[in-house]
Design goal:
With 251 residues, the chain is an alpha+beta fold. The chain has two domains: 1-109, no CATH class; 111-251, Aminopeptidase (3-Layer(aba) Sandwich). The protein is 45% helix and 16% strand. The chain is built from ten helices and six strands. It has a six-stranded mixed β-sheet with strand order 1-2-3-4-6-5. Helix 1 (2-8) packs across helix 5 (78-90) and helix 3 packs parallel to helix 4. The longest helix has 19 residues, at 55-73. It starts with a helix and ends with a strand. Bound molecules: coenzyme A (COA). Coenzyme A is lined by residues 134, 136, 139-140, 172-174, 183, 187-189, 212-213, 226-229.
Length: 251
């Protein structure tokens, strides 16, 4: 378990806490069986309780070697598997807790990190589509996004040849057009936004934007240290809302 935690980059202090609180054996066996069943599928059948402690992390790490073998059978380069799975380690906190639903995509073999961006294999009305995600590490430079987007189609054509991905979409607060009222034209966020043709379907994102940008619970005082933080705080203070917006781009 420690070697696996080391490989995905779980911080040392968390590793000790995780090893000190193993989950219930029966719950672990059931979760592992579910993750095995889901491997290769575009959906997840495993459900987690809200307060499931270290159970999701133990279950993910238990199946990790099988998921890596599944990647290897599709000739996914080890460096891409590693970059993909490293997000798990980086998100462990509070004594071994991770946001379990998010990682289902990594462990069913649908999500891959290609440089700056992550791409999740999905489908709508029979059309294979890539769902783009933006991990919160480092700046979102246009060059890094160009490289990731250029890599996506060849990567999936090589490793998942049965599915032809011609389009990608992204549903994120980063695509909220209201950000243009606050951020400079040449900010990375607005340059990223301009790549997409957006849909009018939107959902409220106030709580998510608080979590993604500030990592603070709702109701907490928001700091205004950067232009984005000031924008978010001012907008909410005026009683306005942020939205998740869906945008599309050809690959
Ligand atoms: C997406 C992300 C990498 C963009 O960062 P970036 O490349 O620095 O973005 P920009 O160049 O557009 O930044 C414009 C301004 O906003 C600030 N800013 C951007 N992201 C910020 C963040 N997460 N927290 C605080 N300030 C941020 C920048 O510091 C800059 O302000 P400044 O000029 O006062 O310094 C960053 O917002 C991030 O890590 N977000 C979390 C991940 C996420 O939300 N993913 C999408 C999930 S749906």
């Amino acid at each position: 378990m420690r070697d696996l935690m080391q490989w995905v980059g779980v911080p040392e202090a968390e590793q000790t806490a995780v090893l000190a609180s193993p989950p219930d054996e029966h719950e672990l066996a059931a979760a592992v069986a579910g993750l095995r069943r889901d491997l290769g599928s575009l959906d997840s059948s495993v459900t987690w309780r809200a307060a499931s402690g270290t159970l999701p992390l133990y279950a993910y790490l238990t199946v990790l070697p099988e998921v890596l073998a599944w990647h290897a059978a599709r000739r996914v380069p080890r460096a891409i598997s590693h970059a993909t799975m490293h997000q798990l380690g980086s998100r462990v906190r509070d004594g071994g807790v991770v946001r379990p639903y998010w990682f289902s995509r990594h462990f069913r073999g649908s999500l891959y990190r290609l440089g700056r961006l992550q791409f999740d294999r999905t489908a709508r009305h029979g059309e294979p589509l890539l769902d783009v995600h933006i991990p919160g590490d480092g700046h979102l430079t246009p060059e890094a996004c160009d490289d990731s987007l250029a890599a996506a189609r060849p990567f999936f054509a090589e490793h998942f040849p049965a599915e032809e991905y011609k389009r990608a979409y992204c549903t994120s607060w980063l695509l909220d057009p209201q950000l243009a009222d606050y951020l400079p034209e040449d900010s990375n966020i607005l340059r990223f936004q301009r790549r997409f043709t957006t849909e009018s379907v939107i959902t409220q994102a106030d709580d998510d934007i608080r979590a993604f940008v500030f990592d603070l619970p709702s109701g907490a005082e928001l700091p205004r240290r950067t232009r984005l933080e000031a924008a978010i705080a001012d907008h909410l203070a005026e009683g306005k809302h942020w939205h998740h917006v869906t945008g599309w781009l050809p690959l």
